Amino acid sequence: MPVAIEPARQRDVEALLDGSEQFALSLYPPDSCYLLDVSELEAPGVEVFVARVDDVALGMAALVPYDGYGELKRLFVDDRARGQGLAGQLLAAVEDRARERGLPVLRLETGPLSVAAIALYGKHGYERIPNFGPYVGDEHSYCMEKPL
C-alpha cells in the first residue's frame, strides 16, 4: 500500500483521527491521551503520512521534529486494514523521513494497555525509555525510542 505525506485536513484522514481518539479514550483517561489535533498536525515542520487503498485513507502517522529527536504521533490503522502490515509500512516511512531530516532518534509515547502497539514497536527495534517531556509522571504513558 502506498504511503505519502499529505495534509491532515482531509475528511478521510480526520476520520482516522477520530477513530484513533475513540480508541485511546476507550483505554485511558482523557488527560492521559496526548493526541495532536488537526491544527497541531498542520504546524510548521510536522508531516502527516497517509496510507491509502483505492484512494481511501486506511492508516496514518505523523512525524514531529524536536531539537535532537523526532516524535512519532498518531500512528493508527483502520480496522479494515489491520493485520496487513500497514502499521509497519507507516512506521518505516516515518523513520526514513526522520533520517532524511537528520534526526538521530525517533521517540514515541503509547500506553501500557496498548499491547499490540508495544509489540509492533518492539519488533521494529524500539526500546522502552523513561517517560519524557509531557509524559513524565503519567502512569498511563509508556515511552520508547529507536536510534536511527
UniProtKB/TrEMBL annotation:
Transmembrane segments: none
InterPro entries, per the entry: Acyl_CoA_acyltransferase, Bact_Acetyltransf, GNAT_dom
Keywords for this protein: Acyltransferase, Transferase
Residue span(s) of domain N-acetyltransferase: 3-148
Domain of life: Bacteria
Gene3D superfamilies, alphabetized: 3.40.630.30
PANTHER family per record: AMINOALKYLPHOSPHONATE N-ACETYLTRANSFERASE-RELATED, AMINOALKYLPHOSPHONATE N-ACETYLTRANSFERASE-RELATED-RELATED
Protein name, UniProt field: GNAT family N-acetyltransferase
